[in-house]
Amino acid sequence: MEFLKSINSKDALEIIKNFPVSPGTENIHIDEALGRIIAQDIVSEEDIPPFSRSLVDGYAVRAADTYGAKETSPAFLFVDGHVKMGKKADIVVSEGHSVGVSTGAMIPEGADGVVMVEYIRTAGDSIEVTKGVYSGENICFKGEDIKKGDVVIKKGSRLSPFHLGVLSSIGITNFSVYRRPRAALISSGDEIVPADSTPSIGEIRDINRYTVANILKENGVDVSFIGIARDIKEDIADKILKAKGSDIILISGGSSKGERDYMVEAIEALGGKIMIHGINIKPGKPVIFGSLWDRCVFGLPGHPVSCIMVVVRFVLPLVSRLKGEGEGKEKLPVTGILTTNIPSIYGVEEYVRVSIERIDRTIYVTPNFSKTSVISSLAESDGYVVIPEEQEGLEKGEVVEVHPFY
Q1: pTM here?
Q2: Phi, psi of 61 (to 5 degrees)
Q3: pLDDT at 6
Q4: Same domain (yes/no): 228, 301
Q5: What's the gap between Cα 96 and its chain centre?
Q6: What does the pLDDT look like over 77-123, one tens digit per residue?
Q7: Torsions phi, psi of 20, nearest 5?
Q8: Which domain holds residue 265?
Q9: Number of compact structural domains in the chain
Q10: Residues 154 and 33 occupy one common structural domain
Q11: In sequence order, what DSSP letters do the residues of 83-96 get, joined into one string?
């Protein structure tokens, strides 16, 4: 077994980016589609709305018949009937005439504007228009929202409630989405015990199982917990074997280059290949990334903060690809003013947990300094700031970008 040298984060992300993935697809009903990634372009086969309709209660008119109308000099028009919502408009609006319409009702032929009832005075079988309308006013024309042949949702889009509204409007309720990635999670270490047990001296409860699993679930991944592996190569290999069939395997703990860490040996014994063993970052340096059974496998640091930062920075970009979502879908950073100096080590990319506070219209960013084993620092943080490896710290008053956790 030969350990690889630590590499910088840019090179690590490039290796992960180039790992081949083939997301599967499945057909689902619109009721189960929220948050899923659509696997096809959706093309409308009809115009929406399918007919021109009124946006207000009022009277459909020929706009030219109302030009110049005002309170003191209204336009007089005959009324030829009324079109209710949900009914076909069989009336033709001719010069000097009008037709009453309800909100959402079909616009009768010949009309090109609707006068709101607020600007109408009725007088028997005619009306007085006290404010003119322009052509197209208060009308949603046929195909104005969606035209037949339009691509209304592009392949790779995450389906929001608004997308589902578009799909329902064109009558598409079954469609193809990318299958949720399946992740297998393994905790490792002789000192790790289940969260519902009472640790003996020297033991600690399993934190990473719950933080990592829920980060993945929050990002649309189906997660199976395989169990806690002891610090024995054979036990780690046995747990990894039980994860076969998953799209991604994540093992927390045992990824550093210490003499009692057997993760690399176990992966290679099963026929895997290690592509990354150590990334020049803080926290999170002892990272493993490799290939096993044509699937990706991550070895995560055991310390909770290090583990989570590696998941956020390096695992989630690959998860996006496994979901069929592609790249560039990460949360947009928030810009704020740093409230104190942040020291860092030159040559190491550092991730500093921070809290943000909005005072008036200004956002202030305050670092939460703590050790990588302190999980409470994450619970109290809104996000993190990246200090590039070629930079020695950040100074109070600098404008910084905060990458939000949520």
Answers
A1: 0.84
A2: -140, 170
A3: 86
A4: yes
A5: 54
A6: 999 999 999 999 999 999 999 999 999 999 999 999 999 999 999 98
A7: -70, 130
A8: 9-24+180-322
A9: 4
A10: yes
A11: E-TTS----B--TT
